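Quick sanity check, Alpha/beta hydrolase:
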Amino acid sequence: MLRALQTESESWRARLARIRALESSPTPAVRWTDADPGLGILRTDTVLADISARSRALADALLTAAEGYGRVERVVERASGVAGAWLGYLVGRAAPLMILGALPNLAAFVLGGLVSRALFGDSVAGGSLAEVAAWFQANPGLLSDPAVVAAVRVLVSSADDAAVGALGLPFPAALELGDEGLGLLGVSSVAGAALLLVRPFGLLVETPVSVHRVTETGSPVHPAVLAALPPDGFGELARRIPDARADGPQIRIERYAGNAGSPPSWIVYVGGTAEWDPTGTGQPFDLTSDVAGAAAGDAGSGPGNLGPSGSYRAVVEAMHAAGVQPQDPVLPVGHSLGGQIAVQLAESGEFNTVGVASFGGPTAALSIPAGVEAVTVEHTDDIVPAFGGMPPGVDDRVLVRSRAFAAGETPAGQALPAHSLTSYQATARLMDGSAEPNLLRFRDTLAGVGATGPAEVTRWHGIRVTGP
């Protein structure tokens, strides 16, 4: 705004100079009176010169302050990561002793649980989980506290350091191998280890997936082709992301016909987690994909040949079925798990990704390829992005952070209200009112993708294929 004021005042000064040049007989000896227009022009020019100089100085100072705050934030974030790594390393070194000391209590707990299950069945455990969920819905303030969110981000990034400590390696090795160094260990490694531990028990097991076209409600598709105008900004992008519903479409694909001789462009919208079943028997947008997506890390292919998540494979299959070709410009957009998938699509290199937008996705540890216009939006009172850990380095993404409920109390009724799609849609609409150059550049990319609108719209629903 200060730069705009500076430019406007300089423009008015130029106009005044042209007006003064129209004077027929300028003379230095003239004595102006209060009624003389020349005196008014001179006074106006003096005021405008002062406005221009002050707005320029304030804009320069504001930019310097913002860059200084950014440097301090990066230093603090780096220090927090190292401190968390050190704490995790100490916990890992002490873990063997802690486990030995806890074995008697653990045995008693397991035996008591078996007896309880034999006598009372699963109702006790199920009732307890329901009570915990109900408590968090009635009291969402704890999980929505920005301090708790920041602490979780550090702790998630420190899990790999705890593993290195448990192995007895020196702390510098933990720093060099983990997120703070080479990134060989990190969130994906920890998630991959968790998958290897629980899959023998039939939990978080990936399956083949299948996708089919549906209507908005999830019923079989109508023969008519739907059409939509191109999105005009972040608010409209966020509005078109499918809701996380088990019976509805999880993927929306818009095809924009290319000009003569050019390929079509595509915008792919991906929804979030719709089911929390850890058995992997329902749809692919479930808890299994949440963990498998974290284990996959960049490009959707996980360590130890664990492979990409079912949700990622469902999106890719839907894109192929819709007709997306490798050379076609693609802009993926997603919320939560869908935001993670959108970034992984960009990183994979399988498609010609020109831009990517993630709302509330755990994407911090994922990398953005050079040349891709990327915007990631996170609420500081949303704990889900924190499970992506600390960013290992600096790439070209634009990170937009805001507190969803900065004014007033966090609304009850949802365990994670700041993570809801409606909350991110509200933030996206605010972003459309920003003149920040990076956001304007992304909107230019978006306008290029949808330049030949309206679009042909298809919606897709994925399922897990189990059994023979």
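Posting the structure with no commentary besides this: DSSP finds twelve helices and ten strands in the chain.
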